[in-house]
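R.M. (postdoc): so does anyone remember the format we settled on? I'll just put the structure tokens first.
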């Protein structure tokens, strides 16, 4: 068998793992996949070049070879800030109200996919497996096929797939999905997103779909669609938890909260994460149970993200206002109920914070999976575990039904869940932890990679 070629928008070398909390799940997941399989990780360097520059820069670090290109200001504007993050991201997270469509950014998206194909094709040899990631690069498989590639090519979508009725609001939606049918294998985080995709293919494209096997046949080509729920890098995270850095971080948090229970949220500053709604839930908790204001301190870590996109500027302003309002109304001279922190922390520090916080709050309005939910549970002390409050709209809720499942649109639901978590007896906390920890440990990122790679290796290709 040949080597593995991974292609994703961003490439994050292992030494940058410290920022993983800010980078989202994909970077950490791919680093561990590439540690296990010999191969090359190709993508954008994250840097802006002055002009169209096709130079590929390669580096090897801890067994991972990365090959990156820079993008021009126009490429970043149209492809990354534009079509990927102002069109596809909101649409795929069911936010039609925030979805913008501009012909120019659509063209930029296609142009950058073309550039990716031009640059990565010479790195691919006959027997190599190619694995493309996420919504930035949906058309890449078709672009590679048009250059004559007959390799097995897989694609994994890290975010949700929206219901057909929403998806058809995207101009040229057919064109986009038809390009996806040039992959041999298409992976989704949950069965729900896979079903929506199959529904679209059958209803809108008239493809022949087999719900059971997930095969989609159109114009003589067959693609298999399957769910592969992503997991965390359990061993690596546990090792981080053993470090002095993790212990110190936990101590720091505990000594600053004293007799109050720490409740924590860690999210990229993104509207899909439901942060204003979360603050509404906390505000409601303080309104309903004013005698408990001194029992709780909420720590929200929210590193800024995609700051050039208008909807992200707005969400940041809204959060600052809401956090300020609640603190203004509820603080005392010796006590502030919400600590709102706009920076990222290393994985080791996050482990320490998660273990010290007796409630984890993960309440996205829509999320492909959400690895923070899994990391929170993974960091708990089995003898005295904390409680995870989890949105019913995170992919992770399907795998972790023993968490306290909430509707993030309901401040009352969240307020009551917070009170339940605060008062939950040890035996029940342990029972919920025991019911969840096996899937967090066993359905890990190595397992995810192995499953996807095994299917991609054994599948036939329509070439
Ligand atoms: O999980 C979706 C995703 O876009 C990943 O591809 C990425 O690692 C993460 O969110 C962070 O986003 P960005 O690369 O835009 O900072």
């Amino acid at each position: 068998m040949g080597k593995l070629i991974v292609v994703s928008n961003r490439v994050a070398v292992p030494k940058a793992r410290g920022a993983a909390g800010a980078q989202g799940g994909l970077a950490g997941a791919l680093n561990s996949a590439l540690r296990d399989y010999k191969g090359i990780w190709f993508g954008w360097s994250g840097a802006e070049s002055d002009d169209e520059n096709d130079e590929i820069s390669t580096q090897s670090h801890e067994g991972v070879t990365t090959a990156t290109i820079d993008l021009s200001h126009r490429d970043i504007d149209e492809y990354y800030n534009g079509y990927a993050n102002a069109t596809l991201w909101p649409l795929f997270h069911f936010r039609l109200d925030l979805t913008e469509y501009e012909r120019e950014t659509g063209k930029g998206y296609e142009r950058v996919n073309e550039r990716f194909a031009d640059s990565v094709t010479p790195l691919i040899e006959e027997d190599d497996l190619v694995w493309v990631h996420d919504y930035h690069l949906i058309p890449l498989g078709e672009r590679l096929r048009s250059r004559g590639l007959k390799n097995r090519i897989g694609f994994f979508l890290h975010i949700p797939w929206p219901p057909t009725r929403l998806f058809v609001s995207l101009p040229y939606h057919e064109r986009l999905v038809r390009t996806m049918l040039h992959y041999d294998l298409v992976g989704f985080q949950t069965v729900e997103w896979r079903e929506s995709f199959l529904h679209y293919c059958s209803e809108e494209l008239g493809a022949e779909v087999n719900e059971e096997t997930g095969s989609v046949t159109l114009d003589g080509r067959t693609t298999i669609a399957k769910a592969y729920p992503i997991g965390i890098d359990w061993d690596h995270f546990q090792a981080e938890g053993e470090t002095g850095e993790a212990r110190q971080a936990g101590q720091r948090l505990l000594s600053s909260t004293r007799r109050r229970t720490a409740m924590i949220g860690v999210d990229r500053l993104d509207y899909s994460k439901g942060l204003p709604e979360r603050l509404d839930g906390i505000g409601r908790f303080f309104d309903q149970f004013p005698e408990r204001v001194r029992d709780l301190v909420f720590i929200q870590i929210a590193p800024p993200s995609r700051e050039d996109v208008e909807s992200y500027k707005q969400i940041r302003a809204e959060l600052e206002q809401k956090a300020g309002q609640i603190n203004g109304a509820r603080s005392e001279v010796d006590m502030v109920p919400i600590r709102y922190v706009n920076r990222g922390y290393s994985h080791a520090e996050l482990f320490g914070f998660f273990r010290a916080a007796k409630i984890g709050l993960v309440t996205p309005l829509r999320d492909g999976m959400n690895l923070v939910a899994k990391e929170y549970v993974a960091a708990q002390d089995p003898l005295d575990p904390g409680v995870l409050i989890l949105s019913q709209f995170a992919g992770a809720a399907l795998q972790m039904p023993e968490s306290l499942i909430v509707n993030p649109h309901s401040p009352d639901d969240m307020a009551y869940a917070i009170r339940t978590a605060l008062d939950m007896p040890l035996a029940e906390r342990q029972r919920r932890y025991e019911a969840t920890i096996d899937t967090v440990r066993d359905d890990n990122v190595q397992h995810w990679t192995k499953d996807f790679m095994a299917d991609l290796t054994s599948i036939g290709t329509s070439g």
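R.M.: ...and that's the designed sequence above, right after the tokens. Also worth knowing: The CA atoms of residues 382 and 430 lie 7 Å apart. Residues 16-24 have pLDDT under 50 and may be disordered.
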